[in-house]
Amino acid sequence: MSTTKAPEAKVTIPVEGMTCAACSGRVQRALETMEGVGSANVNLMLKNATVVFDPERVSPEALVERIRSTGYGAELVLEERSAFDEQEAQDRVQAEEFRTLARKAAFSLVAAALGMVLSMPVMAATASGVHGGHAGLADPFMRWSMRVIDPWLRGVVPWIYAVDHRVWLAVLLTLTVAVMGWAGRHFYTRAWAAFRHRSADMNTLVAVGTGAAFVYSLVATFVPELFSRHGLAPDVYYEAVLFIIALILLGNALEARAKRQTSTALRALADLQPPTARVLRDEQEVDVPVEEVRAGDVVIVRPGERIPVDGEVLSGASAVDESMLTGESLPVEKGPGAKVIGGTINRTGSFRYRATTLGADSVLARIVRLMRDAQGSRAPIQNLADRISAVFVPVVIAIALVTFATWYLLTPTAPLIRAFAAAVTVLIIACPCAMGLAVPTAVMVATGRGAGQGILIKGGEALQRAGDVDVVVLDKTGTVTEGRPTVTELEVVEGDDELRVLGLVASLERGSEHPLADAIVEHARRRGVRLAEVEGFASQTGRGATGVVDGSAVAVGSARLMKEWAIDVMPLRDRAEALAALGRTPVYVAVDGRLAGLIGVADPLRAGAREAIAGLKRMGLSVVLLTGDNRRTAEAIARQAGIDRFVAEVLPEGKVEEVKRLQAEGKVVAMVGDGINDAPALAQADLGIAIGTGTDIAAEAGDVVLMRPELDGVSGAIALSRRTMRTMKQNLFWAFIYNVIGIPVAAGVLYPAFGLLLSPILASAAMAFSSVSVVTNSLRLRRASLAAV
Ligand code: ADP
Ligand code: MG
């Protein structure tokens, strides 16, 4: 959209009082339509707004003002907090929200039960003397209670029938005012705020529905003659108001509790950080708070303890359980030089290590931050729910008015009461609360589930896209293979000395970062070859390297490189082909313009690669191997891995082209790589999956990061996405079906034929149930199988 690069700033503002998708949609639109705002993402679950804006044109304070103008509360968080603190703060807010709602729901439920009991003597009294008794009583639920509860009450507490019913009316009125004014207060204040901004949301429906019933009851209480003059019982609907508020609050409380559970995975991650670490200070072992550990400190870990911070092992050895971060179930052996991650558990031995990354840069903090961002992000399918919610409330209010008019005009007896009850029921059953929860709760649970298996999905969009993938492109080195190659053969042209050639090559390769170069340097070191200085080192990307060593011009790399340097590889070509047929990489060496030798480098397949690829195929995905390595090697590796299609001898730019070519065929492409020379291809792909190594979460590249290198994470991510999409669609269906069926029934379309009507009380119970069922359905993803099926 913005072609000129405007300065950008990003701020996250907590927003208070949003209860449904219509609310968050309203805040979002208000922000988006503001001058200087690039994009806004308002999250109903995390109750915040993340805004990208141009700081020269708009200030964060203005953004806060804008949010407040929509009727919701907003405040700027001044100091930058750590991911752990933020998580904790959010937990506290969520726990508090649940407690408050639970208290209010409990109070209202007690009041509602009491209200129901007291309604019996009131109804009995008001009916007497009125022709037709309670024929006009439109609420089927109350009709039922008159039939069942009334006789029972007369037996148990007959005295309540002896008291003047006006006393009970006063008590009912008091109870209702208390519930409306305290427990249900926010429905009215928020509805009013929405009204002032010419919009309406779920609160509007509850407020209008219960408000109308309340006003009606007030009139019946204070001017009953108005009813009796027309031969009607002056029925009050206090108990309906009480029940509606109580049930909706109960639903909200259950929903708040379930919503807290959607973030348990993240909470568990944040809790991995141990509070203290044992470090060496002045030759003394002392326990210090983790925040006080400094880079370079020597940390001591004993068996069974949690590793406090990231670092590198100095001495000792152990096996470390990293499953909580990488999903790897077997403990990982660690010796001197190995990297350890804060939050993992030391199993068998004890060791000392040097602290490296700390605080916000630690692996755990970065994962928690990544997951927090992911959980708060939107999945595109949410737009559907938002579009529906935006038009929903006005449409429902229109339907309620039509319902009222129709009943009023067509009912012979007590038209006002019936019209009124039907309209209120329509308002209550139509609350779109569940629709706002359908997608975000699934995103929360699914990203948490993935994280528990070492699959970090960076957001709702990536989560949704993973489910649509048709083609999985696998980079060879470091992805399908281990990426830790070793030299297996070294052959020199007649007359050359093996160690001299190795020395020249290794000296040159010291300047290269390629895994092949590391293998060659390592091999030379093991054979005790002395390495020399290099002049004019040049990395020939995707082909090899060149430079001058000891006065000789040395070139090392692929056949392509040799061809570019006009070097005849004939003498060793057959040997090279034979190596390639085994899946090894032949690396040519030329010295002073003449072929000098050939190095065979083997990079074995990753454990489980074959099975993982078979799994991808079972899921109906096509798998393509992509490599800069030569054709023969690629073919052999593809065969070993069970991949039918491969593209070899591509330069790093060529990988991007290959991904584009597949996309041009209309395929949704996932690219899996280690981010070493395939970052551009990862970015080009519809879904970039970066293979991490546990310590390096390759946070920059990729929409999905696999915390452990096994390829089953690829099918795991796609399987999780497919299941999540299914859950989201079920959620949307269930959220919607209540309304689609409920609204016409509430309006009374089944009444003429079947005499069937909904009661406002049953409608509020149904709405509460619908929200809870949607969140519960999302929670099932916590145990979703990630197996390739
Ligand atoms: P991949 O796609 O497998 O990651 P690259 O694009 O990194 O492969 O490299 C392609 C080929 O270029 C290698 O298979 C190798 O033949 C050659 N090559 C690249 N860098 C070097 C190097 N430093 N030393 C020797 N050969 C190299
Ligand atoms: Mg590579």
Characterization of this structure:
The chain is of the alpha+beta class. Helix content is 52%, strand content 17%. The chain has a 7-stranded mixed sheet, with helices on both faces. Strand 24 (669-673), helix 26 and strand 25 form a beta-alpha-beta unit. The longest helix is centred in the first third of the chain and has 45 residues, at 83-127. The protein is elongated and about 125 Å long. The model has no long low-confidence stretch (mean pLDDT 87). Bound molecules: adenosine-5'-diphosphate (ADP) and magnesium ion (MG). Adenosine-5'-diphosphate binds at residues 475-477, 509, 512, 514, 516-517, 542-545, 556-558, 585, 587, 627-629, 652, 677. Residues 475, 477-478, 674, 676-678 line the site of magnesium ion (MG).
Bound compounds: adenosine-5'-diphosphate, magnesium ion
- Major β-sheet profile: 7 strands, mixed
Tally of helical runs: 29
Strand order of the largest sheet: 14-26-25-24-15-22-23
| Class inferred from helices and paired strands | alpha+beta
Helix content: 40-55%
Contiguous runs where pLDDT drops below 50 for at least 5 residues: none
Describe how the helices and strands are arranged:
Blueprint: E1 9-16, H1 21-32, E2 37-43, E3 48-53, H2 60-69, E4 73-74, H3 83-127, H4 140-156, H5 159-162, H6 165-183, H7 185-196, H8 202-222, H9 225-228, H10 238-262, H11 264-270, E5 276-281, E6 284-289, E7 298-301, E8 311-316, E9 318-321, H12 323-326, E10 332-334, E11 339-340, E12 345-346, E13 351-355, H13 363-375, H14 382-410, H15 415-429, H16 433-452, E14 455-457, H17 460-466, E15 471-475, H18 476-480, E16 486-492, H19 498-509, H20 515-526, E17 534-540, E18 544-549, E19 552-557, H21 559-564, H22 570-581, E20 585-591, E21 594-602, H23 609-618, E22 622-626, H24 631-641, E23 645-647, H25 652-664, E24 669-673, H26 679-684, E25 687-691, E26 704-706, H27 712-747, H28 751-754, H29 760-779
Parallel strand pairs: 15-22, 15-24, 22-23, 24-25, 25-26
Antiparallel strand pairs: 1-3, 1-4, 2-3, 5-6, 7-13, 8-11, 8-13, 9-10, 9-12, 14-26, 16-21, 17-18, 18-19, 19-20, 20-21
Helix pairs in contact: 1-14, 3-4, 3-6, 3-10, 6-10, 7-8, 8-10, 8-15, 10-29, 11-16, 14-15, 14-16, 15-27, 15-29, 16-27, 16-29, 17-27, 19-20, 22-24, 23-27, 27-29
Magnesium ion (MG) binds next to helix 18.
